[in-house]
Amino acid sequence: MAATPNRQFKNICVLSRFNYGKHKEFVEAAINLGRSIAERKLHLVYGGGNRGLSKLVSEAAFIRGSQVLGIIPRALKPLGSLTDSPTGVSRLRYARKNN
């Protein structure tokens, strides 16, 4: 990901499939993506859950120094798969529906 001189990205958002099943190559790719995000000194924004590929990306980026922001719809907060402090998150925010 090469940035042009007059436009550099500081944040990147990652959304991914929740369940990776038997595909170990997806696990490796998610971890490598998180590492690459940190190496490029980017901040990560992701779905905020504590399962699946997004979690792996966030943990790999966070461990290597990236700021990680998890965004969770407020309606999903009561679910057991989402916690108030998933591993690999600098900040967690609950989004509200704008009506």
UniProtKB/TrEMBL annotation:
SUPFAM superfamilies: MCP/YpsA-like. One of its GO terms (cellular component) is nucleus. GO terms for molecular function: hydrolase activity, hydrolyzing N-glycosyl compounds. It comes from the Eukaryota. InterPro entries: LDcluster4. One of its GO terms (biological process) is cytokinin biosynthetic process. This is Uncharacterized protein.
